Amino acid sequence: MRIATFNVNGVNGRLPVLLRWLDETEPDVVCLQELKAPQDKFPHAAIEAAGYGAIWHGQKSWNGVAILARGCEPLETRRGLPGDPDDSHSRYIEAAVDGLLVGCLYLPNGNPAPGAKFDYKLRWFERLRAHAAGLLAQGAPAVLAGDYNVMPTDLDVYKPERWLDDALFRPEVRAAYAALIGQGWTDALRTLHPGERIYTFWDYFRNAYGRDAGLRIDHLLLSPEVAPRLRAAGVDRDVRGWEKASDHAPTWVELTPR
């Protein structure tokens, strides 16, 4: 079973890239972020024609998350992260798919830091940790996949010294991620590649992709019930080099059958 996360950076503008990648790799479950499309503009017909059922939480111009499942319909279990009824951002959606509970998230960027946006990021992280703790308490096999907008360690950023004051790398954010992992979640990619520099994002500027000046900010976290099934994890790096590509590359895990 292959589960992937992909920040598409505009699902309609990048639709040819998404459909090509789905056709070539056939992931079983896909978490999408940054749809940048209102609810009624999600390309459901094209996704369905590609063989995927879908649920999505859209938002005009910004944010937006979706879960796709090959050959079946995801069963939605939650729309929006609990803990703040006034939060209108479309950043979290959750579904049951083939015996797994899959949470798809797009954590706030938080820049500039310090500031109001950074404070919102930290509050959102607190809400995520609270919800994640609840999932673990239920004992359900779960995966939390998405764009976390955090580089957990120096290995996850091409020049750490240049990012010390950035909201993706500040100590408060890395500590929040470490606290989440400390609940019992497994960072799949880092677990299987503990000493490698592996990136999931390359900026459009300064030939970042060509220079491999990247960041690892897209993560798949596995609950203790799922972690023993982890067989492989990687990044479809070449997708970042396709024409009109997102600045993120799809990141994935493979799990052994139950």
UniProtKB/TrEMBL annotation:
Signal peptide: none annotated. It comes from the Bacteria. CDD domains: ExoIII-like_AP-endo. InterPro entries: AP_endonuc_1, AP_endonuclease_F1_BS, Endo/exonu/phosph_ase_sf, Endo/exonuclease/phosphatase, ExoIII-like. The active site is at Y106, D147 (proton donor/acceptor), H248 (proton acceptor). GO terms for molecular function: DNA binding; double-stranded DNA 3'-5' DNA exonuclease activity; endonuclease activity; metal ion binding. Keywords: Hydrolase, Magnesium, Manganese, Metal-binding. The record marks H248 as: Interaction with DNA substrate. It is an enzyme of class 3 (hydrolase). Probably binds two magnesium or manganese ions per subunit. The record marks N149 as: Transition state stabilizer. Mg(2+) binds at N7, E34, D147, N149, D247, H248. GO terms for biological process: DNA repair. Residues 4-248 form the Endonuclease/exonuclease/phosphatase domain. The record marks D218 as: Important for catalytic activity. Pfam families: Exo_endo_phos. Belongs to the DNA repair enzymes AP/ExoA family. This is Exodeoxyribonuclease III. The lineage of its organism: Bacteria, Pseudomonadati, Pseudomonadota, Alphaproteobacteria, Caulobacterales.
